[in-house]
Specification:
The chain is an alpha/beta fold. It has five helices and eight strands. It holds the Pfam family ATP_bind_1.
Length: 207
């Protein structure tokens, strides 16, 4: 069948194609409480147009979703976020962000399945919201790092106090970040990659 050369063919956009040198792709999930910045992180760092499932919050969520500390939030993720970042010529990360509200937690198993590692985003105004995410990752055996998203006006605590409050083991990296910035979000992902490498190459404890 003839076609007009001036008309675009169906298929991925040129900028969405993987580099030909790519040797390995890794699935990483971004988890955390409601309104902690998961969608923002995926958007800021993704080299392709991110897929988001944000919907406008309606009266149906009143009395169901806890908006303490995020009263100005008007949209929420109802399924997942998806993005991609090429860390070097050989390694590509596929990023999946989970929904934050408890009523959507049933979707987490499918999103987390097959993940090599995870980023747990934390808001110091709502530390307790990060516990379910960390519990789910620990139960699934998924290594993770914790990134404190620095919201304007949020209280700042020493790392030792945050570790104690989160009951975070010393071997789990704890870093600060600004999920709105590409360089900051990328550094969090690099910290996760280093953590995964260190965990994989650490000598096994003697039985």
């Amino acid at each position: 069948m003839d076609y007009n050369d001036s008309e675009p063919l169906l298929g991925p956009r040129r900028e969405d194609l993987l580099p030909t040198s790519t040797e390995r792709s890794v699935k990483v999930v971004v988890v955390g409480g409601f309104g902690v910045g998961k969608t923002t992180m995926v958007r800021s760092v993704s080299e392709i147009r991110p897929l988001t499932t944000e919907e406008t919050m309606t009266q149906a969520g009143v009395g169901v979703d806890d908006l303490s500390g995020v009263e100005r939030k008007t949209e929420t993720t109802v399924a997942m976020d998806f993005g991609r970042i090429t860390l070097n010529d050989q390694l590509v990360l596929y990023l999946f962000g989970t929904p934050g509200q408890q009523r959507f937690w049933f979707l987490w198993n499918g999103v987390i399945a097959g993940a090599l590692g995870a980023v747990v985003l934390v808001d110091t105004r709502r530390l307790e919201d990060s516990f379910p995410a960390m519990d789910r990752l620990e139960q699934g055996g998924v290594p993770f790092v914790v990134a404190v998203n620095n919201f304007p006006g949020a209280p700042v605590h020493p790392a030792s106090e945050l570790r104690s409050a989160l009951d975070l083991p010393e071997h789990v990296p704890l870093v600060d970040c600004d999920a709105r910035r590409l360089d900051s979000s990328r550094d969090v992902l690099l910290t996760l990659m280093h953590h995964l490498y260190d965990s994989a190459t650490a000598p096994s404890e003697a039985l």
